[in-house]
Amino acid sequence: MKATIQCPHCGGAIETFRNPYPTADILFYRPGEVLLIRRKNPPAGWALPGGFIDYGESAEDAAKREAQEETGLTVRNMQQFRVYSKPGRDPRFHTLTVVFIAEPEGELCAGDDASEAQWFRLNDLPTPIAFDHAGIIADVQKAGQIQ
Prior knowledge:
The protein is an alpha+beta fold. Helix content is 16%, strand content 42%. The protein has one domain: Nucleoside Triphosphate Pyrophosphohydrolase (Alpha-Beta Complex). The strands form two sheets. Strands 3, 4, 5, 6, 7, 8 and 9 form a seven-stranded mixed β-sheet that branches.
């Protein structure tokens, strides 16, 4: 979406663009289970660990950083799964996320903007699950990436 703003120095028109916000999410798994965090901030609910990609940071590094901040865990055997970019997937604004799948390493400890971090059986997920994360988990299962 294009918009025009006025240059504060010369008064000329400057064309700007309103783009989606890039994010990275990580699906930690172990046999029959997935790790979710309970969000401290709106929108409420359980979610995959993840967050915004900082300027100058790769999606891979953002996923690792967010995982560490929110769960205390480090990443092992990380692989990119898919990109999700449907407008409306985040009720706050348009985001796109690069989803990674990984095995965890370390001691689980909720932190940063996660009030809890907990393992859930794939057939007994909590509600509500924020964003489109329930669909992401289902897609990963359908793809045979986790069982």
